[in-house]
Specification:
Elements lengths: L8 E3 L44 E7 L7 E7 L5 E4 L3 E4 L5 H14 L7 E8 L2 E8 L5 E6 L5 H7 L7 E8 L3 E3 L18 E3 L5 E4 H7 L11 E6 L5 E5 L5 E3 L9 H7 L10 E6 L8 E6 H4 L14 E4 L3 H22 L1
Parallel strand pairs: 1-17, 7-13, 14-18
Antiparallel strand pairs: 2-3, 2-6, 4-5, 7-8, 9-12, 9-13, 10-11, 14-15, 16-17, 16-18
Amino acid sequence: MAGCREANHYYAETSMFGDRLPDRFRLTQQTNAQEVDLSRLASSSGSSQTISVGDVLEVQLAAGLGEGDQSQMAARVQYDGTIWLPDIGAVQVEGVEPQTAEGLIRSEAVRQELFRNPTVTVTVSFKKTNRVRVLGAVREEGVYELPAHASDVVSALAAAGGLAEDAGQRVEVRNPAGSSMLSEQPEVGGSPLRPVSAQTITPMSSYTINLSTAAESAGQSYMVEDGGVVMVEKRDPEPIYVQGLVRTPNQYDYPIGKDLRLLQAISLAGGVSNQLADKIFVIRQLPGSAEPLLIQVSYRRAKRSQESNIRLGPGDVISVEQTPGTVFMDALNIIRFGINGSTALF
């Protein structure tokens, strides 16, 4: 009754005729990149007024003794987060807002006994931006300018209009390595900018993230440097093939990011074409294996049990087989058609 059975032939459920399909061959639930909460990947970088490396600040300093006792200068934030001011020297300002920077400059001037109670005003005249290229499965590929303080993967994807429908889970980020110089900026308030000293940035290797697992772990920032590239994986799964005793045998697109089970595939093909059809083979090519995996399923059991209504994968072939019962039903239908046709002739 069991017939000849190969080693890679399994049954969807426990059967007296053969082994049940091992769990290692059962497919897991599909993940959808568009359902990932990307906000969990965003960096906590402060407000848009936060001072960042590369910003240009306009600093006004007055001792309060008269109109002539005022100075105005421009300063660019260096790689170490400081600005350099004449007489005062280096002041750490990265990561704070202009109002806080005013207090830091005032405190340093008083500490060095340059002024007793100076008035300091700090404004941001130029905000450093990063030019980032976004490619792959996004709605609008292109080059986008992101604020330096919020130049992360989430901001890059948002600038590109979000993920496309064929987006996968993998995102690769390539950041430039080696030396970097900030672009020259014009003079502000008549004072020349102090040039940024050449400094070797620690090379950052390209890295790849899985959107789902990264969002679940959270707590880590995925930054994109100036000149960086963000590439989102495109999914192009193989179609499935439905053949045999179905109304519309054909190949059908495999849905991206969604589960596809056996009964759904048969429904795509218009359902079974024979009332007694029950024996189904799911043929799946395993990676690295010369012989395909053969899964035998009962159509009637699949309608009652999720264990038999197995998940399908890209490239699966679903074949609804002929049996003695289906052959008998086909013959009976032919006889009925012949009788009905003959009756109509008289």
